[in-house]
Every structure is written in C-alpha cells, then in structure tokens.
Description:
The protein has 424 residues and is of the alpha/beta class. The protein is built from 10 helices and 20 strands. It has 2 domains: 8-86 and 230-418, Aminopeptidase; 88-213, Aminopeptidase i, Domain 2 (Roll). The radius of gyration is 22 Å and the shape is globular. The relative contact order is 0.18. Bound molecules: zinc ion (ZN).
Amino acid sequence: MDLNYGSPFIDRLTKFLDRSPTPWHAVANTAEHLERSGFIRLDERAAWSLEASAAYFVVRSDGALVAWRQPVDVAGWTIFGAHTDSPNLRVRPDPVVKKHGYFQLGLEVYGGVLLSTWFDRDLSLAGRVAIANEGAVLTELVDFERPVGMIPNLAIHLDRDANKGRKINPQDELPLVISRAEEDAEMDFSETIARELGRSAAEISAFEICAYPIEESQVIGLEGEFLASARLDNLLSCFIVSEALIQNDAAEGTMIVLNDHEEIGSVSTGGADGPFLESILRRATIFSDFERVRVNSLMISIDNAHGVHPNYASKHDESHRPLLNEGPVVKVNANHRYATTAITQGLIEQAAERADVSLQYFSGRADLGCGSTIGPLTAGRLGIDTIDLGCAQFAMHSARETCGIKDPELMLKLLTQLTKRDLF
Ligand code: ZN
C-alpha cells in the first residue's frame, strides 16, 4: 500500500502548520527557515547593497514577508504569492468577562469564519504582544501551547431545533470559557499574558491574540490520502512557495510574497492592497529598468481551491469539479475575482506539461458569489500578469480543513518548473 505516513515533506509541512497558529508565527517560522537556508534578513529602514546571486528577505509588521534570489540583470521576476492569515477568533483589547460563575474572554470574528466548527474544540491562545521599550515598541510572540478554554455547544435537550438550520450570534455565543470564577475573584488578562512571557504586566502595552484549535494536523483516510489541519487556507500555500524558493538555489529572479490580511480585504501595510511588494520589487530591481522588468514579470497567486464535496456536488458547476489528489487547480472567474487570463493560463499549461503535472479547473456556479485572492489585487496594483492556482480542499474556513496528501508536492513540482523561466 502506498501510504504517505512519514514522508519528509509532509512531516515538515505538518510541523509548520502546527507551529504557526497565527500569521506572525507563520512569518517567524518562515524567516527562521530562510535564515537556516542562507537567506539574509534585510531591514526596510536601512540602506541596502544587494549582490547578485545572494538571497534576501524582508519582514514587514511581523505578518508579511518578501524573499528572493537576487539576479544580475533580471528580464522579469517570477513571483509566487500566498497569504499568512486564516479566518479565526481574536481576543478583544479588554477581554475578561465574569458571568454566571465563569471567567470568559470576549472574542471578535476575524474574516469569514465557519463559526459552528469552533464549538467544542480544545482551544489555545497565541499572538503577538507589544512591549514598551523606552518610547519605542518591541513585539514578542506568545503561544500558550496548551488548551486554555472552549466554546461549549448547548445540549440538544435545551435546543431541540439545533439540527434544523442553526443561527449563531457571534456577540452572545462565542465568548470563550476559560475558568470558574469565585464570587470575589478578579482577572487581569495582561497579567495572564505577562506570566506566559515571563514579564511583568506593566511591560505589556498591547496585544493581538488569536484563539486556535490545539489539535495537531494529521494524515487521515483509509489509505492515508488526506491531510487534516487547521489553517490549510492558506499556510499550505505559504509553505509550498517557501519550499519552491529555498529548494531551487539556481532560481535567480524568483521572489515570494506572503501577505497578511487577505481574509479581511488586504488593505494594510503588509496586505496585497498595500505597497509592500511594489516597494521591495523596486528596490531589488537594481540593474535594470523597472518598467521593462515589471511588464516581463509573472505573478502566481496560490490559495486553496474548493474541491467538490461528494455530499454537495451540486454546489459546483458540473464541468468544474476539482478532486483532492488530482493536481493543482487553475481558478478562473469572468469577473476577475481570480486574476487568471488566457495568457497566464497558457503559460501555466505549458509549464505543467513540462513538469508532467496534470491540472484541474475551477469556475464557480453562475448563481453563487465567488471568493477572491491576492491575485487580482496584485495584478491591479502592479500591472503584472497574474494567474490564480491552488490545491483543492474541503471545508474552507472551517477550524479543521482537509486537503489531498499528494497535491502539495504536485504544486511544488509545478512551481519548480516555473522558477526555470524557460517559457516567458
Ligand atoms: Zn485563502
């Protein structure tokens, strides 16, 4: 039997998924991997002197990253993009609520969360904390690494209609239960964070903390064909694009961008609708005319695609039903919610043929709205031809998502072919 348990690639992928409960952890882990692989960290506030054939990266605001292999005279960049954030529940600034004998944390919904999937899970907390530093601010990552609370479901005996189309009020039904509270007990959440960091509460200026399911990712299925995990959208793609850059040390002129805030519209300093990528592209295009290089560049935006769900197959157009483990999905939308054009699809078709990777296609039902990605925003901001690709998955935006075990490596194979730049 061809089981994938123990594949070194999948092992590293699952470790990355499990150790990256927030966008800031995903970027820190990617930065560490890049540094171990010889990439040099640059500070955006400093002057740079770039050398051809060296490899660099820049982190912005902890949640976004650009890395590249510096070419001598670049004809055009090959850029792989993905996003670091996932829909989740985030702790409010003054979160502690004491009600009916329990301490709870007030949460806000970040992005398009499939809310019902967060109930009855063992939840932990992780995020970044601003530490006061003589007028400046340092950020430090925190991860509680143990289940510290849950959002219990209501027993079916107390809600007989629970299985008949349940509505969830996010204000009233999501506060996280974290402990019993004696009548005169009080809790200061800054103190709780300070204790985790080994600091004093006075040092904590502010925080951005996410709840996350503690359950580790796992290979599942009778034949081990699937991978179940939190945050597959879109840490799966972050991992694949980083691998494509790191593993291919001859890939000069290849760049990756990991944007933050895609799930909430991408408008931020590290988001795809901000200036981050353009600013780095301009600084890294040192030996050539930027405008000429820009129009010769290709952006490949990678974000997971909806694999057809066998119980709900009618939710897909009948001719566009991607399956798990059948290869990368090309995402097409006439209204440009995906950035794919006939030109960019034509290039990818040829790259896929050379890499011996088969492609699948997604085009949504005409009577259903379509999601989007960083692809159209990047194409629009930079004027760089772009294609949207992704691995097929089930249950997008659930607390636990599932993809095929083979697709990540098939996508990597395709991206490796594209780093050769032998097509455009
Ligand atoms: Zn996504």
